[in-house]
Amino acid sequence: MTDYSNFDLVTFAILLEKAKGDRSINQYANTINISAAHISRLLRKLVKSPPSPDTISKFASGACNGVTYNDLMLAAGHIDAKTEGISTEKKQTQTVEKEKNFFKVILSDLYTRDFEWSLNKTINGPANLMLEITNWEYSNWYIQIKPHVTSQTIYNIYGQIACIDLTPDTKISVAVGSENEFDLFFSKPPKSLRANLYIMLIDLNNGNISKEKKLCQY
């Protein structure tokens, strides 16, 4: 008999509601190609067995509010909490330090630009930096800092971007730290994302933005 004792259906329901964001269940279901009825049952904690990793990957691909594949996998019981906790704590420390260095490089670059800009706010949701620009082709610039990107998390990034209220004069940049991660976006571009989306490569060794390329157009 299969053991579902590690499935925390309450935490999973909370994470799924957060992942859905302000969208209706039907809107979220259509985005990720999952039955709205199944999502509804999970949100009402009526499903006693955890979704499969493939289904969880779909939930994460369209998730809002920073909900990740690992968050959902942990709540579903597919990841050992004790083992994952040790590695996650170490990864989080490394990630925070890397994010700080990314911030320094990006801000240093901004001060060399010809246009005028102001830092509207720093947020933990769909972007880490939000800039208001004057004397430039874009009036708003969102920057996501992503020190670690994989073929699984890339779709979660697209889902976060889709939650932003986008306009033709909005630019979005995803900052990564390796050539492999940079190339990954262009090997797995979003199929239906209306955004002026750029991928930015940060060179921490030389302390600069080595390149930035447009991935898709609004």
Structural write-up:
The protein has 218 residues and is an alpha/beta fold. The protein has two domains: 71 residues, 434 Repressor (Amino-terminal Domain) (Orthogonal Bundle), CATH 1.10.260; 129 residues, Trna Endonuclease, Chain: A, domain 1, CATH 3.40.1350. The chain is built from eight helices and six strands. The chain has a six-stranded mixed beta sheet with strand order 1-2-3-4-5-6. A hairpin with a 4-residue loop joins strand 5 and strand 6. Helix 1 runs antiparallel to helix 5. The longest helix is centred in the middle third of the chain and has 30 residues. The chain starts with 8 loop residues before the first helix and ends with a strand. The model has no long low-confidence stretch (mean pLDDT 87).
The assigned structural class equals alpha/beta
Mean pLDDT: 87
Q: Portion of residues in helices?
A: 40-55%
CATH class of the largest domain: Alpha Beta
CATH architecture of the largest domain: 3-Layer(aba) Sandwich
Percent of residues in β-strands: 15-25%
**Number of discrete helical segments:** 8
Question: What summary fits the major beta sheet?
Answer: 6 strands, mixed
Annotation, overall tally of beta strands: 6
- How many domains comprise the coordinates? 2
- Sequence of strands across the biggest β-sheet: 1-2-3-4-5-6
What is the alpha-carbon Rg in Å?
A: 19 Å
Which characteristics define this entry?
alpha/beta; six-stranded mixed β-sheet; 6 strands; 434 Repressor (Amino-terminal Domain); 2 domains; Trna Endonuclease, Chain: A, domain 1
